[in-house]
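[recover] target loaded
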């Protein structure tokens, strides 16, 4: 590093990654910031620069170098800090402490952990310190690979497991031969069995009913009146279940509460229907929240909140140290916290596995003509925010495309059966090309039957469905 580079850094001003110190009289404060940089995204401390960015330099002696070396030894776990003594003038130097994000966060300096928020350094909050400790442990022993207690294969949803294999075979990500395997063999093929026991990933993905030991397998769903949580609840639910159940619940809740704007373009008599949020973008966000969340916190769940002006999806667990918010808007390295869960989503065809999840959300919104999603970190978690093109309750024209008693998906089921075919639930599911689970489709069929719109022929797995005869 040379004086030109130092000058450029001094002109930028202090920020989340740049700190100025006038002299080594502030060495303790300088290393508190070094510790904070290690715990965040890295940064540079310039010693010999005033708060206003004026470069004044610092006399450097052997004693100065030894003093800096002593401060580095106070950082735990041990770490190397790149130190540059950049000549300035009159025999003085600017001391540059160049810090990259630490792989073994959380780091402590002189017995205490520090964090960086904007251009300020302070003590790290306890909840963040505990999260980083857990994440450090996960580098060697991830939660989703640990042995599941109290679960056997018969407590898993075998239809969902076979659905994964079928979808994976259709995507050429799973060998078609696996379709003929028994459930035990399939789970081993998906690497969800270790030492002849199920691992946590298998429970998160396929449990029929999650036990109290997996209380974090839950999504909170709320529709607030207004633009903040101080408004009244219009709807408030909690859904426990496996990953596929949670994704379906989130999509169905959004579909129930979000409008569809319908309009005509000049010279085009065909009506254009524009959802407030593209379903594929929301599915991508829900899948990411399950693959990336911190399951070690049993008291935290995924939350989906709908306000008049936006939908906000939050999950517990901050971004990995090698990523930042800005990087999410471009292609980036894939860094799933739960690799086994993410691997099955990849096999299923729900994720691409190349760090494109957030950019795909952006693309879906662009194609839909709606605002691009925003990404934030707060309260020890990560949020995706979808803002509406027009706030609900505004002046936009909203047209309900189906009968008030039917979801759009139920209308599609009627369209499929209206061709005169008699189909079983699996065949209907395949023709729908929908992101909901087979269990959800079966519930829809039961609802349509109660409304006397369709009828059932036969029972059990052999049951067929058709339009009700008049």
């Amino acid at each position: 590093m040379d004086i030109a580079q130092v000058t450029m850094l001094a002109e930028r001003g202090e920020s989340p990654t740049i700190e100025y110190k006038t002299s080594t009289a502030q060495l303790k404060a300088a290393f508190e910031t070094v510790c904070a940089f290690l715990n965040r995204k890295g940064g540079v401390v310039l010693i010999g620069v005033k708060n206003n960015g004026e470069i004044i330099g610092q006399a450097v002696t052997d004693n100065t170098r030894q003093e800096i070396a002593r401060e580095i030894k106070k950082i735990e776990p041990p770490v190397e800090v790149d130190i540059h003594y950049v000549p300035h003038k009159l025999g003085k130097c600017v001391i540059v402490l160049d810090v990259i994000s630490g792989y073994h966060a959380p780091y402590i300096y002189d017995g205490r952990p520090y964090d960086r928020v904007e251009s300020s350094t302070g003590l790290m909050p306890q909840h963040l310190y505990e999260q980083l400790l857990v994440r450090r442990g996960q580098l060697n022993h991830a939660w989703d690979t640990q042995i599941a207690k109290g679960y056997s294969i018969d407590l898993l949803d075998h239809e969902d497991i076979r659905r994964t294999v079928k979808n994976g075979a259709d995507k050429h990500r799973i060998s078609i031969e696996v379709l003929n395997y028994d459930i035990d063999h399939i789970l081993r093929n998906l690497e969800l069995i270790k030492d002849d026991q199920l691992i946590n990933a298998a429970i998160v993905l396929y449990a029929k009913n999650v036990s109290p030991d997996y209380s974090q397998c839950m999504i909170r769903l709320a529709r607030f009146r207004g633009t903040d949580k101080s408004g009244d609840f219009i709807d408030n639910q909690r859904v426990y279940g496996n990953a596929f159940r949670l994704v379906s619940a989130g999509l169905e809740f959004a579909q129930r509460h979000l409008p569809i704007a319908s309009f005509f373009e000049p010279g085009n008599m065909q009506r254009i229907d524009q959802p407030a949020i593209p379903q594929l973008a929301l599915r991508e966000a829900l899948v990411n929240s399950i693959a990336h969340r911190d399951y070690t916190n049993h008291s935290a769940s995924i939350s989906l909140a709908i306000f008049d002006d936006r939908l906000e999806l939050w999950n517990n667990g901050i971004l990995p140290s090698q990523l930042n918010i800005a990087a999410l808007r471009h292609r980036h390295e894939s860094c799933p916290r739960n690799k086994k869960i993410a691997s099955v989503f990849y096999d299923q065809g729900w994720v691409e596995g190349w760090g494109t999840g957030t950019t795909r959300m952006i693309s879906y919104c662009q194609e839909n003509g709606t605002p691009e999603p925003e990404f934030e970190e707060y309260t020890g978690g990560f949020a995706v925010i979808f803002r509406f093109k027009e706030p609900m309750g505004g002046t936009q024209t909203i047209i309900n495309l189906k009968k008030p008693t039917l979801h759009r998906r139920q209308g599609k089921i009627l369209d499929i059966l209206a061709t005169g075919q008699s189909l079983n639930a699996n065949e209907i599911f395949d023709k729908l090309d929908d992101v909901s689970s087979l269990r959800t489709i079966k519930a829809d069929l039961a609802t349509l039957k109660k409304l006397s719109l369709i009828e059932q022929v036969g029972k059990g797995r052999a049951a067929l469905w058709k339009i009700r005869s008049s």
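[recover] notes: Confidence is low (pLDDT under 50) at residues 394-405.
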